[in-house]
Amino acid sequence: MTTPTTPTLPLPLQDRVAIVTGSSRGIGKAIAIHLASLGARLVINYTSNKEQADLVANDINSSCADSTPRAIVAQANVSDPAQVKFLFDEAERVFGSQLHVLVNCAGVLDPKYPSISNTSLEDFDHIFSVNTRGAFLCCKEAANRLKTWWWWSNNIVIIIYGWWTEAWVWGICSIKGCSGDNDKDIS
Ligand SMILES: NC(=O)c1ccc[n+]([C@@H]2O[C@H](COP(=O)([O-])OP(=O)(O)OC[C@H]3O[C@@H](n4cnc5c(N)ncnc54)[C@H](OP(=O)(O)O)[C@@H]3O)[C@@H](O)[C@H]2O)c1
Question: Where is the signal peptide (predicted)?
């Protein structure tokens, strides 16, 4: 007698393509690993720390049996529009699909938490260029590219914000829903 086999259900994010900015370490790394466990294919983004980014990608790739990698690394400074474009191009090129998920985690934070009187204009500009401008540039690029899964489904854009930036978190946002009115959705 043959033993009945239990059908395997697809994972919730099976083969969805996700970019997690700043995923070489910290919160971004944890989110990338979690999305991979839900079935997503990942772009691990970093700006300077290639070694750490490679470790995250290797970790994800070694935990699945696929012959093709489920995670790749891409260096891109999110405050630079050309590099943001490259990041999205790379995701589409390598995985042969439009993007489904963007998680903005790239960020800089001075661990000394200086008071405003001790914060230089250069530090202020740098923090805002990554944490705020970077998130904006990635959302803008995503607004033009995110793929709608089904007519009723929304895509996922998450912004991890810090004490410097305005409190602005999108859990699951309708960035390109039924209306297709991206600008309205993202403003
Ligand atoms: N940790 C917390 O408790 C906490 C709480 C609330 C909010 N946040 C916010 O969440 C965000 C992430 O925090 P975290 O603790 O995970 O930080 P983290 O451990 O310092 O990691 C920062 C990540 O951002 C990347 N990054 C930095 N500048 C970048 C740039 N210009 N372009 C692309 N990637 C860049 C880093 O890449 P490299 O490795 O290449 O440098 C790294 O992957 C920050 O905005 C922070 O303010 C953190």
Answer: none
Q: Is the pLDDT of residue 167 over 70?
A: no
Annotated domain spans of the chain? 17-186
Model pLDDT for residues 44-80, shown as the tens digit of each residue: 999 999 999 999 999 999 987 777 889 999 999 999 9
171-183 per-position pLDDT tens digit: 333 333 333 343 4
Q: Does domain 17-186 have CATH number 3.20.20.150?
A: no
Ligand 1 close to Cβ of residue 22 (< 6 A): yes
Determine the distance separating the centroid of ligand 1 and the alpha carbon of 152, expressed in angstroms. Answer: 33
pTM (2 d.p.)? 0.85
- How far apart (Å, rounded) are the C-alpha atoms in residues 172 and 1? 47
Judge if the beta carbon of residue 132 lies within 6 A of ligand 1: no
Q: Which atom of ligand 1 is nearest to the CA of 47?
A: 40
CA distance linking residue 58 with residue 73, whole number of Å: 10
The per-residue DSSP string of 44-96 comes to EEESS-HHHHHHHHHHHHHTS--SS-SEEEEE--TTSHHHHHHHHHHHHHHHS
